[in-house]
């Protein structure tokens, strides 16, 4: 007569239960190692004793990688099952949810524009006013920030343009100076006397000695000629008076 099948149930004796746990745990870890080697499988085994002590076994890939792979696989399986079984119901619920959200947004938009306020209570109006005030503060703050950035950028451009203008003015003055020097050099090369003309001439004192002597000599000669001319006339008149 063969041995009957033993019914599995909790061992009430603590000592026997601990001994059985140690034996079965060792056999379980051994079987997990054997299946991983024989079948080239990735195995992860986690066992907690009744006192909460952890016993684990994993192949070379590591416990964390195996658990992460399990999570991805189980999540994909759950999504696939949920899509196959509840796709129509989920789409209907999603449509209702989105429709209600759109209606609420439209109502809030009209309230922000000051429309359809007859059915709004005093507390809701106060809340709406506070929201508008907060929105205006944010808008003004952003506007002031943009204006300040724009002014700073314009000032920076103005400074750069001013510096560029100063540089151009300096270059123009230097070029004008060079042009004047070249023109002077060209004049000197074509007309050698121009160099002495352009140079400041010393002022010499004017001596009129020669001119005065010549003037006195010419006056004396004119007197002599006049005397010679008038002498016959005087003698003629004197002879007439004597007769």
From TrEMBL:
<dbReference type="GO" id="GO:0000977">
    <property type="term" value="F:RNA polymerase II transcription regulatory region sequence-specific DNA binding"/>
</dbReference>
<keyword id="KW-0804">Transcription</keyword>
<dbReference type="Pfam" id="PF01486">
    <property type="entry name" value="K-box"/>
</dbReference>
<protein>
    <submittedName>
        <fullName>APETALA 1</fullName>
    </submittedName>
</protein>
<dbReference type="GO" id="GO:0046983">
    <property type="term" value="F:protein dimerization activity"/>
</dbReference>
<dbReference type="GO" id="GO:0005634">
    <property type="term" value="C:nucleus"/>
</dbReference>
<feature type="domain" description="MADS-box">
    <location>
        <begin position="1"/>
        <end position="61"/>
    </location>
</feature>
<feature type="domain" description="K-box">
    <location>
        <begin position="88"/>
        <end position="178"/>
    </location>
</feature>
<dbReference type="InterPro" id="IPR002487">
    <property type="entry name" value="TF_Kbox"/>
</dbReference>
<dbReference type="GO" id="GO:0003700">
    <property type="term" value="F:DNA-binding transcription factor activity"/>
</dbReference>
<keyword id="KW-0238">DNA-binding</keyword>
<dbReference type="InterPro" id="IPR002100">
    <property type="entry name" value="TF_MADSbox"/>
</dbReference>
<dbReference type="InterPro" id="IPR033896">
    <property type="entry name" value="MEF2-like_N"/>
</dbReference>
<dbReference type="InterPro" id="IPR036879">
    <property type="entry name" value="TF_MADSbox_sf"/>
</dbReference>
<keyword id="KW-0539">Nucleus</keyword>
<dbReference type="GO" id="GO:0045944">
    <property type="term" value="P:positive regulation of transcription by RNA polymerase II"/>
</dbReference>
<feature type="coiled-coil region">
    <location>
        <begin position="125"/>
        <end position="178"/>
    </location>
</feature>
<keyword id="KW-0805">Transcription regulation</keyword>
<dbReference type="InterPro" id="IPR050142">
    <property type="entry name" value="MADS-box/MEF2_TF"/>
</dbReference>
<keyword id="KW-0175">Coiled coil</keyword>
<dbReference type="Pfam" id="PF00319">
    <property type="entry name" value="SRF-TF"/>
</dbReference>
């Amino acid at each position: 007569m063969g041995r009957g099948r033993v019914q599995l149930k909790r061992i009430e004796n603590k000592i026997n239960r601990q001994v059985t746990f140690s034996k079965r745990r060792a056999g379980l870890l051994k079987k997990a190692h054997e299946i991983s080697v024989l079948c080239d499988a990735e195995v992860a085994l986690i066992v907690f004793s009744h006192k909460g002590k952890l016993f684990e076994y994993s192949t070379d890939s590591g416990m964390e990688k195996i658990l992460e792979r399990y999570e991805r696989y189980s999540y994909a399986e759950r999504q696939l099952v949920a899509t196959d079984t509840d796709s129509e119901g989920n789409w209907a619920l999603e449509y209702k949810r989105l429709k209600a959200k759109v209606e609420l947004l439209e109502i809030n938009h009209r309230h922000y524009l000051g429309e359809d306020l007859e059915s709004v209570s005093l507390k809701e109006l106060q809340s709406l006013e506070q929201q508008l005030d907060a929105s205006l503060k944010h808008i003004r703050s952003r506007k002031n920030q943009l204006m300040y950035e724009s002014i700073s950028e314009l000032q920076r451009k103005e400074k750069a343009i001013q510096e560029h203008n100063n540089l151009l003015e300096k270059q123009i003055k230097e070029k004008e100076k060079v042009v004047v020097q070249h023109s002077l050099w060209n004049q000197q090369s074509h007309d050698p006397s121009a160099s002495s003309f352009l140079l400041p001439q010393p002022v010499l004192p004017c001596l009129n000695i020669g001119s005065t002597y010549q003037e006195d000599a010419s006056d004396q000669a004119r007197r002599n000629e006049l005397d010679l001319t008038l002498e016959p006339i005087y003698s003629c008149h004197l002879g007439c008076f004597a007769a």
